[in-house]
Amino acid sequence: MMKEKNTQFWKRTVSVSDVGLRLDKFWGRELAEDGVSRGRIKAWIEGGMARVGEEVVTKGKHKLFGGETLTIGAAEPEVGAYAPEPVPGDLEVLFEDDHILVINKPAGVTTHPAPGEPGPTLVNYLLHQWPEIAANISTMDEQRPGIVHRLDKDTSGLMVVARTEPDRLKLAGDFAERRVRKVYLAIVHGCPAQKEGIIKEPMGRHPSQKTKMAVVEKGGREARSEYRVLWTGPRGLASLLAVRIHTGRTHQIRVHMAHIGHPLLGDAVYGPRENIEWSRRPDTLADLAPRQMLHAFYLSVIHPATGEPVTCWLAPPEDFQTLLSSLPRECLRVGIVGMPGCGKSALLGFLRDMGLPCFSADDSVAELYGPDGDGAAMIRQRFGGQYSLEDGAVDKPGLFAAMQVSETVRRDVMDMIHPMVRHQCEEFFKVHRDEPAAFAEIPLLLESGWHKNDQVDLVVGVRCPADKRTGELRKLRGISPETLAVFDSWQWPEPDKLAACDLVLDNAKGLDALRSEAERLKDYAYEVGAQRKRDFSEWLDGVWPALAAELDASEPDS
């Protein structure tokens, strides 16, 4: 907050890293976030509204030599006219002495006053707790006292603040000379193909959207980001990255990660398509990325007075950790298998009676084979209507007969239908993501390799005595011995099938016993899911200090 809202005047001090930069290029970069066009800057400079020290400079190509005080705008304000006001607010302090502060900037707080930013800003809070940094006492920049570097408004984490002008100048030089180590945590969409990488693409203002930055081929400034994947969520939904920036370009991590196809979760500016898709999710994750998921985790600076390193780390805030904790909290996906006629469908029925989410591949195939089913349409197209009824549905007896005598026909049908069943099953699991567990009866799960392709988390087999399965249960289903033998021939032998299962249930003693087995399965699945959550929570608690210790032990320039 400022005494008056300033929308037309800016003041900056030239750092060592900007030596040799043109005056117009300097202001173009500095005012990009404020939406000031290059044309407006050019007009101000040529109109005598730009100063270098006390001198009016009307040439945009004027070269900077470092240390100058620059101003630009419609008119120079009176001293104190736009000075930020102190605003009460407790800031978390990780280090404090007479020279510097290391504080935690909360997400949602802008670093310093700016046109169009009503505040309160970090500077307002700093002035309340440390009034001596005000410009009239410290001689530091009026609008940005103590500020050496910035974090985006919606980025949380560590910042170093100078308490005196000599300390600020020393820190600014260290930042310019890249003697400061900064490591961020980011949650990004998907998973980078390389688990570690360096992004070196230069950055500049977006060619058409002036308030955005972008990777540019010509005229960009050096930008270097080094990332490492710390963890990836189920099926590559999102990943946690540690990102060290060796340069400090505006929006650097956000731009670089979007450039390699993995924008930050919650970043509507640099990942608009992904952000919209995320917000439309059918589960609780849709509401858990209200901002770009970026946190300044680790900061190591050279103390301006002692010359000794000051190193701090800070675990990410609650919203960041809540999202991380929620990513693996999806339903345990249970696949149920067994030989034809073993009682899989009866088991699924008991689970459904308990109110548990259930999926049947047989029901899915029946729907696909119906008059309006996608499977019926594909079979009609592939076989020219040879196995289609007048209403468009599949002639199931005719198709089954053909599949018995022709392996080619059977393979063609499987190659068409199985991907559609798999897609429906995946959608079923997505819809029930927030449940503790969801159960899918998939007769050919093992034969199709779903257990190897992360389609399910747990494979459960139903074991039934051969005489019961081929006798009374076969008769109840109205299947001939010959038909059952054909079905058996299309599946793995029972010993191989059950050996691949995580849990085997028995169906040897009737329906009451099978109902008890269904209850045992529910309890087992719930416990497996709960243990998985406990394991991740324990890992999450330990990853922050472990990462900080690793960074402490690494070489400063590594």
How would you portray this structure in words?
The chain has 558 residues and is of the alpha+beta class. The protein folds into three domains: 9-73, Roll (Structural Genomics Hypothetical 15.5 Kd Protein In mrcA-pckA Intergenic Region, Chain A), CATH 3.10.290; 92-327, Pseudouridine synthase (2-Layer Sandwich); 332-533, P-loop containing nucleotide triphosphate hydrolases (Rossmann fold, 3-Layer(aba) Sandwich), CATH 3.40.50. 35% of the residues lie in helices and 19% in strands. The protein contains 18 helices and 20 strands. The protein has helices spanning 23-30, 38-46, 122-129, 135-138, 165-176, 252-259, 272-279, 318-326, 344-353, 361-368, 374-383, 396-405, 407-431, 466-470, 472-477, 481-489, 494-499, 511-553, and strands at residues 9-13, 50-52, 55-56, 69-73, 92-96, 100-105, 156-162, 181-189, 196-199, 203-205, 213-215, 225-232, 238-245, 294-302, 309-313, 332-338, 358-360, 437-441, 458-463, 503-506. The strands form four sheets. Strands 5, 6, 7, 8, 9, 12, 13, 14 and 15 form a nine-stranded mixed β-sheet that branches. Strand 14 (294-302) and strand 15 (309-313) form a beta hairpin. The radius of gyration is 32 Å and the shape is elongated. The model is unreliable at 1-6 (pLDDT under 50).
